[in-house]
Amino acid sequence: MSQSxxxxxxxxxxxxxxxxxxxATRLALPGxxxxxxxxxxxVPYGTKSSLSITRYAEQALKALLRYDIKTLVVACxxxxxxxxxxxxxxxxxxxxxxxxDPGARAAVNVTRTGKIGVIAxxxxxxNQAYQKAILSLMPDANVKSAGxxxxxxxxxxxxxxxxxxxxxxxxxxxxxxxxxxDSDDYPDTLVLGCTHFPALKTAIxxxxxxxxxxxxxxVTTAAVVKKQLTDRGMLNPGSDGYVRFLVTDGPERFARxxxxxxxxxxxxxxxxxxDIQHFV
Amino acid sequence: MSQSxxxxxxxxxxxxxxxxxxxATRLALPGxxxxxxxxxxxVPYGTKSSLSITRYAEQALKALLRYDIKTLVVACxxxxxxxxxxxxxxxxxxxxxxxxDPGARAAVNVTRTGKIGVIAxxxxxxNQAYQKAILSLMPDANVKSAGxxxxxxxxxxxxxxxxxxxxxxxxxxxxxxxxxxDSDDYPDTLVLGCTHFPALKTAIxxxxxxxxxxxxxxVTTAAVVKKQLTDRGMLNPGSDGYVRFLVTDGPERFARxxxxxxxxxxxxxxxxxxDIQHFV
Lengths: 280, 280
What we know:
By secondary structure, chain A is α/β, with parallel strands linked by helices. Chain A has helices at about 20-30, 50-65, 75-90, 100-110, 120-125, 130-135, 150-155, 165-175, 200-210, 215-230, 250-255; strands spanning about 10-15, 35-40, 70-75, 95-100, 115-120, 140-145, 190-195, 215, 245, 270-275.
């Protein structure tokens, strides 16, 4: 007989992008209570140093611990790439899941040729988190990455598809997809290594072609959360979990931009403003 | 006989964009000692709330006061728009200059028709800082603004000109320049209300046409700094002023992106990392 654990799951992102992970988690686990923290006061993380990102992630974790979370989901690729090891070292008793490993695993499962492209923020590309995670699962994989920090702004501005967006995507991906589509060097899998990027999925797919599988780590991360909570007997069954939103800046903007990443309506009044910058 | 004051001028920006103001100040006042602070740990400000921007600006000012600055230049449109009044109220004894008023004055001087367009970040557009500043000088001006937060990412990524950049600019400015060029409603002046935007000057000019005067507040702000220091007898004559760089994150990235906005080479070793987030 399985146990039940009604403590909430904490999800942390630099801003709104991680709402795609929240969305997938809610669909996979409708009984879970979820607390989402977006560090909108310092967003984006993608162009910041690992040092700062780690510090911000630790402050976010401290804020979420006040809600007695049973699991932390680092729902931001940049934060997971830079800070997951440090968070796990600081809080060995807490169950922490990042978006990188599930994404890498999904890419390895889906590729036929082992030629895998990764697009992410500047920071995630620089610390080669996906590269390492994929190679640890598939040592002979051929992984190439490209920084696409611009896509974050596009996604937030609502520029998601159309000719102009495709032209921007094409230029940004030219380093990864500069071979002919029938060439052996053309990747057959592309990891969307930033939670903002699925918003541009249609445009990206049109540019790289249908033959390339796009890996969106939101869905795969939610599946991992479900599996791990199940294995540990820590699920909260049912279908009436609550969702609570915390941000470090601008509840109004958060509520306004959220629909680009989240399928339920969020009112600004539902979004609580908290300060985490003073945590040491 | 004029006095001399060798105390440094402090310049504050959210990141690298304000280097265009530093550049102009250095050219106008080669004898002045200059301390530039970029709050790269929390950049960009353009999508953040006035509350947070004001807090960050106050922390930056506190950091710069330790260097015994004689004047503060708020070299960031977003920070000047959101926080200048609060800074002046908190530090009435300090001489503080923002980039908004010089930009508004330049626009009013240059327009023939009174039809003025302003492009800026989301935050600057929302608090209507340029609109108010221009109307206070020219009450019958017709001012329209558009948020172009995307241009910040373009400028930092080095996407400054070419067909694709012009297509992005055209779409972003369509609300301001949707009339025929010979229409009476076509602006004759466009304020580049964000220190990042002059990097896209060529593309912007090609889109709106040569008949539109582009106002870059970097140069006009430097002229105001020079005039006010002269009037107050606070100049430091000569031509061998030092420049010192402080950032709150990523000295390497700062040094790497700086050439897009600053004409002298900056080595990462010259850039000092400081923490201002703990200031209350």
